[in-house]
Amino acid sequence: MKTIFRLATLGLVSALAACGSDAAPGPTEQIIVREPGETPAVTLTKAPENISLAAAGEAAFAVCSACHSVEKGAPAGPGPNLHGVVGRAAGAAEGFAYSEALKTSGISWSEAELDAYLANPVAKVPGTTMVAGALEDAEQRKAVIAYLKDASSS
Ligand code: HEC
């Protein structure tokens, strides 16, 4: 008897289409067929939905990368380097000239705080100098936050 594993598929295509990126990956589906007792053909170290979400977030991050780097130690652009930002205090990337508003906001970047800031930075932190890059689409915000976490883990 054969065992069939169906892995994945997250319908983020519509969210990505809204982003207008050519690099947007379509939904992925992998079907693995194996005989009992065989070694699995693929070893997953992360849940499939997390892989898809971070990949979608990487595509959506194209909007942010005009101003932000995320690789460890990469120089800041008009915006601060975002490596390790999830879980960190706001305004804490070394050497970046943050606004007083963000520095004194008292925010610690939980996923919920990031979500609110990315939805509307100026409403969340009046006086912030991040005046572009808001993401209206909640799915895109979720994906970008997953990507920020993922990109910070290496
Ligand atoms: C036009 C440039 C620009 C774009 C585009 C932009 N940002 Fe920013 N971002 C900034 C600036 C400038 C700051 C610093 C704000 C301040 O000091 O008030 C900032 C701050 C941030 C912070 C807080 C960082 C910290 O260390 O506290 C996060 C998180 C962030 N941006 C995420 C994003 C994401 C995610 C996107 C894309 C969806 C994005 N930004 C798009 C310019 C930009």
From TrEMBL:
One of its GO terms (molecular function) is electron transfer activity. Keywords: Electron transport, Heme, Iron, Metal-binding, Signal, Transport. Residues 1-23 form the signal peptide. Residues 52-152 form the Cytochrome c domain. This is C-type cytochrome. Pfam families: Cytochrom_C.
